[in-house]
Each structure stands twice: as C-alpha cells, then as structure tokens.
Amino acid sequence: MPPRKSPVSPADSSPASRPPAGLVKASELARRSGVPAATIKHYVREGLIEPARTSRNMAYYDPALVPRVERIKELQRTRFLPLRVIKSVLEEEETESEDEKVAAAIARMLVQTAPAATRSRDELIASGVPVEQLDWLESMGIVTSNQDAGVRVYAGDDLEILRVLGAARRAGITADMLPVTMLAEYGEALRNLVRTELRLYREGVLPRAPTADISALTEAATTLSERLVVLLRRKMLVPTLRALSPGRVSRPKPARRPRASREA
After folding, report:
1. What mean pLDDT, rounded, does the chain reach?
2. Which pLDDT score is estimated for 14?
3. What is the DSSP string of the chain?
4. Architecture in CATH of 21-78
C-alpha cells in the first residue's frame, strides 16, 4: 500500500504564499541570523535593513542581509552603540575609500563627545558676546552656526570655544591683552599638528590595520591623541618659556632674616 501523503493546506500550496525566487520572509531571515523576527522588523523601522520586495501583507528579504544583521547585533553586544550610530558605522564600512572611513569615524566620535548644550546667536549677544567677534570667528571657520527653525544656533565644540573665550575675559584676560584674532595663529599651528597626526596615522596604522577594525582604531586614536597632545603641551610649557626668555627665569630669593644677637 503506497504511503499516504501529508495533507497540504491551500495556503501552503498557493503561489502567493511562497517567497519570490531567491528571497525569504522575515521569519527565515531571523532564523538564519540568529535573532527574533521582532528584531528584524525593528531594524527595518530604524532604517538599518530594507526588504527586497513588499506586497500588501508581506515583505521579502535578500538572504545576503544575514551578515549585516549579525554585524548589527555584534555592535550592539560588544560596543553598546545605539542603532542610529550603528547605521553610520555600517554606511562607513560599506564605503570604499579608507579616508572616508576615517573621516566618518572621527566625525562620529566628535559628535558623541561634544557637549549637548545649544545657544542662539541672540542669546550669546545678549550675554555680552560682541557681534563683531562672532562674525570674525565664523568668517575664519573657527566656529560655525546652524539653522534651527530659522534661528542661528551654536552647539557642541563651537559653543564651547565661545564659552572658553568668555571665561578668559571674566578671568581678566582682556581683548587688549589677547584679541580674538590670535586664534588665527592658533588655528594655523594646530592645523600643522593635525596634518602630522593624520600623516602618522595613515602611514603607520592604516596599512597594518584589519579593514574591520578601522572604525574602532580611529575612534580610539582620536580620543588618545587629544589626551597625548594636552599632556605633551603641559610638559613643554616651562622648558619652552625658558628657552624663549633672553635670560634665565628665576624667582627672587626671600630676604634673609637677621640673626638674633646673643646675650653676653
């Protein structure tokens, strides 16, 4: 007696219920990637992955997305990054140019570590920041404002630069002592330093770094180089001052106290 065939439901046999050739449903993509189906849908909502084809009630995915889903989970698990940052990481990793990868990683690190406060241009002027100072700083590219609902605002490192200048004035370092235009010299000196940093990184790190590690290495180098520059500057301040001085800088010795006379 021939074996009985398993019954096939109409839904299973319907051509409309089967994925298009080469594509899979979200449940199958989830199974191959080792994540819940709800995670796949969450990644779609966040713009991290996209269906290859959609119908009225179903979305179908390219199985080639499996490594991408696995990479997203790895970045969440090992680096605790939010999805919006992971999206930038993935976009950067898909870029062919190493320089663009490095630039994207540095930009992401700077955004993550910059202060979150914002101030409008009108608020800064009302607090005492001279209009001509703001205009000059912007013209030199030292600070940059952004438009927010039609209002010019300063944020992050740009706002912090303005705050440091304000703190200098409050400490008694007047504009006659150190005018804001001195930042042009600072900028040129630091631009040369940055060129040196990037040259050393491109020549020393990038040729020896695995492609998958470029982002992490760039982020670490950005943080560590800032600390290193601050420390080296501290070490060099006094020796450089002495080297620039026409004579040796010395503090006056305290006056000697006269010895008490001994009684006979």
Report:
1. 84
2. 52
3. -PPPPPP--HHHH-GGGSPPTT-EEHHHHHHHHTS-HHHHHHHHHTTS---SEE-SS-EEE-GGGHHHHHHHHHHHHHH---HHHHHHHHHHHT-S-HHHHHHHHHHHHHHHHS---EEEHHHHHHTT--HHHHHHHHHTTSS--EEETTEEEEEHHHHHHHHHHHHHHHTT--TTTS-GGGHHHHHHHHHHHHHHHHHHHHHHTGGGS-GGGHHHHHHHHHHHHHHHHHHHHHHHHHHHHHHHSSS---PPPPPPPPPPPPP-
4. Orthogonal Bundle (1.10)
